[in-house]
Specification:
Largest sheet: none
Shape: flat
Radius of gyration: 15 Å
Mean pLDDT: 81
Low-confidence stretches: none
């Protein structure tokens, strides 16, 4: 089984369960696709850890957030790890 297949199945099964619990059948739960990256050193790992820790703060402004209507878009460059 390939990684994309595993990720796809996980997203499908979990989205169905989430929508069942929320009573929102068919509502998207996951953002499309995912990002792969090879971590090459400790400094890069630390930048990625900080990105993961800080990322939820920007959800209120994220264009993928279904509750955001007319909010300014956050530039993709603001989210890149480097």
């Amino acid at each position: 089984m390939t990684i994309p297949l595993v990720v796809g199945r996980f997203k499908t099964v979990s989205a169905k369960r989430i929508n069942l619990l929320r009573q929102t059948p068919g509502v998207p739960v996951w953002q499309r696709n995912y990002y792969e990256h090879i971590v090459r050193d400790d400094a890069e790992m630390e930048r990625i850890r900080l990105y993961i820790a800080d990322n939820p703060r920007a959800w209120a402004q994220d264009r993928e957030n279904p509750s955001v209507v007319g909010a300014p878009l956050v530039a993709a460059s603001d989210w890149e790890v480097a």
